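The data layer described in this paper is built around a simple, fixed record for each protein. Because each token names a local backbone shape, the row as a whole describes the fold. We quote a single record here, exactly as it is kept in our systems:

***
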Amino acid sequence: MTRPHRDPASRIAWVTVILAIPIAGMLAYLLLGETNIGRRRIARMRNVLENMPPVAKVHPGEAANAVPDMPECYEHLFRVGQSISGFEAIGGNSARLMQDSNSSIEAMIADIDAATEHVHLLFYIWLTDNNGLKMVEALKRAAKRGVRCRAMADDLGSRVMIRSQHWKDMQDAGVETAVALPIGNLLLRPLRGRIDLRNHRKILVIDDRITYCGSQNCADPEFLVKAKFGPWVDAVIRFEGPIVRQNQHLFASDWMSRVDDDLDPLLLPPIHAPQPGFPAQVIGTGPTVRHSAMPEMFESLCHAARKELIISTPYFVPDDAMQGALCAAAWRGVETTVIFPARNDSWVVGAASRSYYAELLKAGVKIHEYVGGLLHTKSLTLDGDITLIGSANMDRRSFDLNYENNILFYNPDLTRDVRTRQQQYLASSNPVTADMVNSWPLTTRLWNNTLAVLGPVL
């Protein structure tokens, strides 16, 4: 168990697996036990990050608009975020919550069609379906009229798109493409780094003026590759203002870690904040970022709640501290609500998640299971003031293995919109009670608990 900072539960889980099935267990550890994306990749990524310019200052004449204006009781949350990615909370932002998945794609395409300088796009999953091909055509149109388009997709999540004629057609039209964390030879890849460490981010930046953040992949909500769980239910927010530059930095770090293309000139000009607006902060995490950064952010938010905490996440396999933070919030009287999908596309995660229900319910956490499709939205609202939205789930994969991006912001009005969306999820959900959990057969509880014990391995 050579990985530094590995938590005790993970060590115990791996020891259990290796003792139970020695040969297969040791092989599994060699393939999946270390959070290693490969020495060369790590070296290049660190070199890129060390040499990138810091986030530029706001234009002197507009600096007053970008001063983050928020209650003192929330400032520490943004200090946690800054400790992760190095981005300060910055004001002067405006945003709106997209209506649904199709509306999100349509808005993205409309902004790409209006782009005049550049379009930067990164998705974990990009399918060759209706919405996926709409994005392909929008990028081709932009490139043909002289807009610099850079498109990046994860090699596992977007493998069908990357290996399709559509990918080549984009390149022929002038779209610059890159593959995030390419797998290469399946036999040799495990010797160089784990196959299942993925770039799970979803980033779109247009003209250094507009950015999108949320759980939306570039695909139809019907998500035909897993149609029986559909529709996928997502939430995306369109941002304008200084926060765009922070997402630009995050995209640039991923792009330059893979492509010999210097994006620094795009990061150097002063940031424009033409009008006052709310404070926000980009939080990027991953296996080469500080250990446990994402759970620390989640836990800080839970501990900060005083009245209400509402969370939606499709995948829930918390570590002990995360589970304790949720229970502590409920124990001290915070109205704490979590919303999970009733049917999960990962039966392993779905079963492991339910092993935590009894303790949550005992503490007073309200659990609801969404029945209108696969609830894929990763959202957290705090006391009606603070929202965290993005790509990170509350599971070990997002905590330790995946590159994720989120935006934390203070805006009671926009948080109210996100909270309203969460209430819509609740209206299409069934509450889970302690009596229901206690009535589960012993075999079900043993199965759920066994998978939870193995959660740090999975």
Observations:
- The chain has 19 helices and 17 strands.
- Residues 7-36 form one domain.
- The radius of gyration is 21 Å.
- The first strand starts at residue 90 and ends at 97.
